[in-house]
């Protein structure tokens, strides 16, 4: 894959998040109306829009650094793989938050980040190679603290974190696991 194209895609998504947040701040956080609101008709659209919206600059910056790094590590497999993994994470993770999340507006790329994190860790399990194991080890060391994001805290969508990670695992399972044919050759 053209590394420059992959970098442009990740950087473009990050810049989109920044631009949307600047617009959100300039309009008195009016874009939060497009967040994911569980079990509401308007909240369905939020499944697609909420990963790009953030509640503050601190919230945005916390997600951007991890998104840039983890997204790039997934992008190494190619643009199509990144898009497919991201679509599974956003759609499945968001749908689960919509179905089971606590009431309120859920916004932020952290579900996406947790999904990318879980995908990279799960990839080492389903597609064993030295490069995947080394990547998973580095991701585990650098971002092992993300596990703390599964703890319920006021004002934090731990459901987004949990369901995003679950969706990342499912993405790895669907895209990387090999079907078992019931017998061993040999």
Could you characterize what this model shows?
The structure is a single chain. With 186 residues, the protein is mostly helical. Helix content is 67%, strand content 0%. It contains seven helices and no strands. The protein has helices at 3-26, 41-49, 57-75, 79-100, 110-126, 130-143, 158-176. Helix 1 (3-26) runs antiparallel to helix 3 (57-75), helix 4 (79-100) crosses helix 7 and helix 5 packs parallel to helix 7 (158-176). The N and C termini lie far apart (36 Å). 37% of the residues are buried. The model is unreliable at 182-186 (pLDDT under 50).
Which tags fit this structure?
globular; transmembrane helix; single chain; Rhomboid family intramembrane serine protease; membrane; 7 helices; peptidase activity; 0% strand; 186 residues; mainly alpha
Radius of gyration: 17 Å
Largest sheet: none
Q: List unreliable stretches of 5+ residues.
A: 182-186
Q: Mean of residue pLDDT? A: 89
């Amino acid at each position: 894959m053209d590394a420059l194209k992959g970098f442009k895609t990740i950087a473009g998504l990050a810049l989109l998040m920044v631009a949307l947040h600047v617009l959100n701040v300039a309009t008195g956080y009016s874009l939060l109306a497009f967040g994911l609101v569980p079990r509401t008709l308007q909240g369905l659209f939020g499944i697609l829009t909420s990963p790009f919206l953030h509640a503050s600059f601190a919230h945005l910056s916390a997600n951007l650094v991890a998104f840039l790094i983890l997204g790039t590590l997934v992008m190494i497999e190619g643009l199509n793989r990144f898009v497919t993994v991201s679509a599974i994470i956003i759609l499945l993770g968001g749908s689960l938050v919509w179905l089971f999340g606590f009431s309120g507006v859920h916004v932020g790329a952290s579900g996406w980040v947790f999904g990318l994190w879980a995908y990279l860790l799960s990839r080492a399990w389903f597609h064993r190679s030295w490069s995947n194991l080394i990547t998973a080890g580095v991701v585990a060391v650098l971002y092992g603290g993300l596990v703390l994001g599964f703890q319920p805290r006021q004002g934090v969508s731990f459901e987004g974190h949990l369901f995003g990670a679950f969706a990342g695992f499912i993405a790895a399972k669907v895209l990387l696991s090999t079907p078992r044919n019931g017998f061993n050759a040999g």
